[in-house]
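Course exercise 7: structure representation. Students receive a sequence record and must write out the corresponding structure in token form. The form below is the worked example handed out in class, using UDP-arabinopyranose mutase (353 residues). Read each field label carefully; the graders check that inputs and outputs are placed in the correct fields and that the protein name is recorded exactly as given.

STUDENT ID: A-19
EXERCISE PROTEIN: UDP-arabinopyranose mutase
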Amino acid sequence: MAAVPSSVVKPPLADELDIVIPTIRNLDFLEQWRSFFQPYHLIIVQDGDPTRTVRVPEGFDYELYNRNDINRILGPKSSCISFKDSACRCFGFLVSKKKYIFTIDDDCFVAKDPTGQEINALAQHIHNLEGADFVRGYPFSLREGAATAVSHGLWLNIPDYDAPTQLVKPRERNTRYVDAVLTIPKGTLFPMCGMNLGFDRELIGPAMYFGLMGDGQPIGRYDDMWAGWCTKVICDHLGLGVKTGLPYIWHSKASNPFVNLKKEYKGIYWQEDIIPFFQSVVLPKECTTPQKCYIELSKLVKQKLGPIDPYFEKLGDAMVTWIDAWDELNPSADAALAGKLEAVKIEAAPKAK
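STUDENT ANSWER:
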């Protein structure tokens, strides 16, 4: 599958995409993204002290939510939204009303391709989600395929390592640019990173929950990976596609490996059981929407992972609370989504000869 060149700019689809940014600092990084992001609406989720003022450069259309806002909007259901962890970004997914979401971290900047051209990350994500180009010789009968629900971009410069690898390779940098977009095969998991991620909110949004992480929890920095494992299992079940590769962004800041180790150490042990769990998940055919899939998955989390640590009992309950919050803020989305998924299945079904 050919990737769209970085110099090709797709129509902005400004009315169909929100950019979600979790942050604890002033958003000066937006200045570098201005030419790409300014046509879009930004949803900023402020982590940490809600009394602190976050500065946003002039000229951007945005709404900003802090912990007080989240408590006010969700009430008791706000317990499912994490803080002191980038998992807080998923509140932005809840309140958006757009078809697509692009989420990015505030230490990520515009990258350049090997020709020196700035990469329009949004254009590539939209291209990944809306369709693909095929080279000569690819059978037209195979070009319909499955709808793409997730576009997972990559990054140059600072690698996305866990703490032990950071300590072993403190000076390593990623300089390799691979001009490719790949579909992750059905039944294959991947470690999703949330700092350069696009997805179709209408198709898979309810499954994009970044879990209970950070403040008050025994684990952090596994938020995006948890969401990725859940989402991939559900996409596989619903017949939706997940792509990874282009676009690249420039990751500028390496986090402290000693702080990371404190956040990650339980996850490093637990993942030896978490991965086999997700590899073994089989969802019943009655699960026909992401909400139904996610509720069923929450039961399996409590049943299969609960014996490892009480945290997973709590996480399973939070997964249900998340779906309750999603349905409360998106009351008409479930029926519309069921119809769309049914249409996807009909389009993807083999045609009679």
